Amino acid sequence: MSTRMDTTAASPGFSLPVPDISAWRAGNTGVEGVWHFDSGKPGRSTMVSALVHGNELCGAWALKGLLEAGVRPEQGRLTLAFCNLDAFDRFDASQHDASRFTDEDLNRQWLNERIDAGDTRERRRAAALRPFVQQADWLLDIHSMHEPSAPLLLTGVQPRNLALAHAMRSPEHIVVDAGHKDGVRMRDYGRFGLPDAEAGDTRSLLIECGFHGDPASLQVAQDQCVRFIEQSGVVGAQALAQQLPGWRMPDAPRQWALEVTGPVVATSSAFRFVAPYTGLELFEKAGTVIGDNDGVPVTTPYDNCVLVMPSVRQARAGVTVVRFAQRTLL
Ligand SMILES: [Zn+2]
Question: Which residues pair with residue 176 across a beta bridge?
Answer without folding.
Answer: 259
